[in-house]
Amino acid sequence: MALTLYNTLGRKLEPFESLVQGRVGFYGCGPTVYNYAHIGNLRAYTTHDILTRTLRRLGYEVTHVMNITDVGHLSGDNDDGDDKMVKSAEERGRGILEIADFYTRAFFNDTERLNILRPTVVCKATDHVAEMIDLIRRIEAGGYTYAAGGNLYFDVEKFPSYGDLALLRQDELKAGARVGMDTNKRNPQDFVLWFTKSKFENQALVWDSPWGRGYPGWHIECSAMSMKYLGEQFDIHAGGIDHIPIHHTNEIAQSEAATGKHPWVRYWVHNEFLVLDRGKMSKSSGSFLTLQSLIDAGYDPLDYRYFLLGGHYRSQLQFSWESLETARYARRSLGERIQALALKAGPKPSGPAAGSPGGGPGKPVAPEKTGPYLAAFDRALGDDLSTPRALAELWGLIRDPALEPGEALLGALNMDQVLGLGLAAMAEGREGDDPELVREIEALIAERAEAKKLKDYGKADSIRTGLKERGIVLEDGPGGTRWRRA
Length: 486
Ligand code: AMP
Ligand code: ZN
Hints:
Number of domains: 3
Mean pLDDT: 88
Shape: elongated
Helix content: 40-55%
Number of strands: 15
Low-confidence stretches: 349-364
Strand content: 15-25%
Structural class: alpha/beta
CATH class of the largest domain: Alpha Beta
CATH architecture of the largest domain: 3-Layer(aba) Sandwich
Oligomer: single chain
CATH superfamily of the largest domain: HUPs
Bound molecules: adenosine monophosphate, zinc ion
Strand order of the largest sheet: 5-4-3-10-11
Radius of gyration: 26 Å
CATH topology of the largest domain: Rossmann fold
Largest sheet: 5 strands, parallel
Number of helices: 16
């Protein structure tokens, strides 16, 4: 299995090769913890999860680093607007660190419910101010900074390749908008490395620094923390497409200015946005959907994961309740099929099984039968993480009548190491329904089909009615009869 990734730097698909054989350093920008993550943010972290799991499937040892922004992030990425943490703390009448702690927990609660694996390293900005100061010193020593109005700025004119990631042109940049711009800036794209004077006189979190008592600009944290944990050059950096023109552009400029090494990061991976039918979802506007709001509406978090995987990460994805409902239906069918395979495959022997993440039926995967599906699955993921095609291979596998149930199940569990749809739990009946009940319902469905064949409609109807009284609804369709809870 080989991996091709679309690299925003250069705007083309490239074969992935790691800097160090067998290892990958991956940094994904984490949340600003001033509010709950919205479901669009969770699309970004699901993309990071698929990437990490795919790399691990390829055999790489992946160090996945995620920052937690708890200081310095203004609502405008270009140093304008309100301070997100300060504003949230004021509105809620709490301390900043208390707010940060609360929303960090809420964030990991969401990611866990979405089966998103914990990053190898989770690092808070406020724990790394010393590293940020060291890095700013190096940038300053290289002559890339100027002080104005009490703050220290990065001078983009000193960095000729500024804007390469976003395909920004230097001559256009100079002519850029100045409306509402910080008047200390020489160029609109210059950005703050360290604030000592800001419009937020009530800034609660401040540190001593060579430039005075103050706090870091937002972008510097990602450069400082990624380099601390992954080295001065590393393999992959990811985030949403909104980060291309400012945040990631500035990260590159300050990192390469500090180290003199190019490229700082080899592959830049950006996910497209999740949008609502009525437009953009934004955390700071207050109008957004959380994972909890989907759960409150009766959905399983993994229905949402399934919905996300149905779109390619580089395509814009429109959220609607109808499409979430479709995802729920598909995932439920998947669960029924997986449970049926598990029941047909018989009781599982003790001990972990090859190809099964949580331990499962213990027959080894028969490569000659499931192999083509697994190979196509790997090709799909290897082709810039095509989860829609990977899902199609899963469906093909579990529907293939030529496969023994045990083989199909093991193949599916193997695929789920990347998809993370909780198939092992479904197979064991831990999720949803008790396998005994499923077995009984399936037997009744078969009995009803037989009765209908013999034109014994009285019996067929009484089976349907009996199940209905127990809250089980039967639906007849072209593929046979399916059941669901009323
Ligand atoms: P934030 O907490 O605002 O820094 O955003 C966290 C992550 O979510 C970043 O990688 C953003 O680029 C990403 N993001 C923000 N909004 C969306 C959206 N609507 N769809 C997908 N990703 C998003
Ligand atoms: Zn970042």
